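Following up on my earlier thread - several people asked me to post the actual chain instead of describing it. Fair enough. Here it is, all 215 residues.
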Amino acid sequence: MGSPTKANHAEASASFPVALNLVSRKCVLIGSAPETAMRARQFVDAGAALQVISESPDSALLAAAAEGAFLLHVRAHSLSDLAGTWLVVLTDQSSNLAATLAAQCESQSVFFCAVDQPDYSSFGHVAVARAGTLWAAVGTSGRAPALASRLRQELQRVFDESGLARIVEQFVALREQTAPPLRRTTMLSRAKHVSLTGQITDTVAPSDTSAISGK
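Reply from S.P.:
Thanks for posting it. Predicted structure:
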């Protein structure tokens, strides 16, 4: 599968975006970082058969596990946890653990992501804005996640303020009502009336290091 390493990440930085179907697939989430509970809920929302392995689960993770949507193991991970696993995510910021898991996952052809450690990951998370059944993803190959998160927030604001979910519903209904031979031309003609206006701005000048550092 080819988990990137620090030696070859430059060659592997051009990502291939996909949307994975995790329904009923075994996924393993490892770590005790504050965001572990949030990641667990994302897996649950995607329909994954999730197991979480955490040596020191916080109250948020314990509360999420109490809902019964995933299994929580309070212990360190072991190689046997990868048996039958399709995808693994590590939330702890440990380069040693990330390197170990990357090698283990690579040997068993398992997708692996060490959060905020793209050099050890075979995939990276994207920030997603949603409007009904439509979603738009923003990613930076794991190199600038804060920017991706901010752009997702802005896209979500635009989606909500423009009532995009309603527009999506109209498109879905029109497609279902249109005969298959006419569907492509009809939908493309309708889509020409949708536009996104505006621009992205950055109020910090490139040379203003004090604003960036917070001094």
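The longest strand covers residues 26-30. That should answer part of your original question.
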